[in-house]
Design a protein that fits this description.
Layout lengths: L21 H10 L1 H6 L1 E9 L2 E8 L4 E5 L5 E7 L1 E6 L3 E5 L3 E4 L5 E5 L3 E8 L3
Antiparallel strand pairs: 1-2, 2-9, 3-8, 4-7, 4-9, 5-6, 5-8
Length: 125
């Protein structure tokens, strides 16, 4: 993801209990210019010590290039379909499927069609 992004002043914040209405956030993500210009957009729903949740919308053919995460993660496909690749394998995931990945494993994601995913990063600072 681009390093030139600015923190959203209106993103959900951490609290002892956070209720998130994903559909409302998805509508907003698709209205923003980033979606039209880059074919992808994301919103950090919560950023707590040890946990980060990121809602992403990816246009067909959009790739998140190879990278690694410091902690374990899950990628849950809410709609659409993506290919999740590590250096050893490739898995195609559709709506309602998720992948769990250990820390520090190189991976990339490609949207096979317009897709919405929820990324959970554990151990995130």
């Amino acid at each position: 993801m681009a390093n030139d992004r600015k923190a959203r002043p209106d993103r959900p914040v951490g609290s002892p209990l956070l209720h998130v209405r994903l559909a409302e956030h998805l509508e907003r993500l698709k209205r923003e210019s980033t979606w039209g210009e880059r074919g992808r957009n994301a919103l950090t729903l919560t950023k707590e010590p040890g946990l980060r949740l990121v809602l992403m919308v990816l246009g067909k053919g959009t790739k998140i290039s190879e990278h690694q995460a410091a902690g374990p993660l899950t990628l849950h496909v809410l709609s659409g379909a993506v290919t999740f690749r590590t250096r050893d394998r490739a898995d195609t995931l559709g709506a309602g499927e998720l992948i769990v990945l250990e820390a520090a494993i190189y991976h990339e994601v490609e949207a096979l069609q317009e897709s919405v995913v929820l990324l959970t990063l554990a151990g995130a600072a």
